[in-house]
Structure of Exopolygalacturonase-like:
Amino acid sequence: MAMAKRRVSSTIATVLIVICTALASCNAAVPLRPDLGAIFNVVTFGAKPGKSDSSQAFMKAWNAACNYVGPRARVFVPPGIFTLGELLFEGPCKSQNPIIFQVAGTLQAVSDVSAFSSQGWISFDTVDGLIITGGGIIDGQGQNVWQYNDCKDNGDCVHLPASIHFDDVKNAKIKGLNFVNAMGFHLHISNSYLVRAHSLTITAPESSPNTDGLHISKSNTVKVARSTIRTGDDCVSIGQGATNVTINKVTCGPGHGISVGSLGKLPNEMDVKGLIVKNCTLQGTTNGIRIKTYAGSGPSVAAGMLFSNIVMENVLNPIIIDQNYGGSSNKPSQVRISDVIYDNIRGTTNTAVAVNLKCSPSVPCQNVHFTNINLKYTGTNTLSSTCANAQVISTGVQFPTPCL
Ligand SMILES: *[C@@H]1O[C@H](CO)[C@@H](O)[C@H](O)[C@H]1NC(C)=O
Ligand SMILES: CC(=O)N[C@H]1CO[C@H](CO)[C@@H](O)[C@@H]1O
């Protein structure tokens, strides 16, 4: 049996060697170790560690893997620092199995901002079945370009590219990677389905602009787990059209905390439905759990959100709903928020108003449930809650005293 198996795989290898010798270009398609599948090592395609741009070689390795018909095609990035411009890894790919993208080394973005024209530095587009892993480093070199971010003063600013952008990606896993200093978001998941992100560390300076850890929009069934995210903006942000999203065991801070929103910036936004945030710790963030919608926004829904078992450590604004975000319009937000549960939220707050619900006067927040809230103020004033236009239900322990 084992003999027969070996004979089959060595026959396959021989056939591939013959084909590849004939083509003289796909030498990396030879399965080096049959149990690992076909390995497409970027170095074999011409990538070189160092300052020279290896983008072309990476594209060739991806295209070879994506066109590989057999099982378990693996793009492999060995140890070493590889300098890369904008990369678009496009499917659909031919294998029935997920493509594995294994980064053992460091991917470093070129420092010329004009090299980037799309939403991602490294984009995966129209791929069904993808595993990105390898323990390596995804270094966006954001420190070279953050100075060009004018989003603070310019509402129509162009966002700098995310380090990794998923667009129309299905059945994907991204795990065991270290992101540092993205130009924009570190990982942006949009128009995607069934994506799991876990065991990531994401790090950027507290002062870096719009460097969200993960941004999820227009996607269904996304799970984020067991990750540590310390950046200058939101730890995880949930944008329009995110449904059935679970965030479990994530540690955040510094940064702006876990956010739903900003919602309602554009006309005709899609609803946000079904969000679970559980077993998370926020450390020294400027918000804990925040839902924010723009003043003057068009109608949409943000409903069915559970925040459970969350620890706050020296957090400003642990629980906040702000439907007057941006504050640049006299019209109220039309985003209808309902069915929100805050359960077992504990720890320390650096603001006395630990619960602050500023809901829209035109579509008040419905069914906002507080159960077992136990926050301690690190200062001397009295801990309190303020609420506007919110229908609140409270059960169990309540510090601060809820507003009713
Ligand atoms: C929601 O996500 C869970 C996994 O987190 C999955 O098992 C379930 O099928 C999803 N539900 C829908 C309606 O997509
Ligand atoms: C590991 C851990 O902390 N798990 C907890 C996650 O949250 C649920 C409740 O939301 C608890 O039951 C688990 O024990």
About this structure: The chain has two helices and 26 strands. Residues 56 and 355 are 52 Å apart (CA to CA). The longest strand covers residues 162-180.
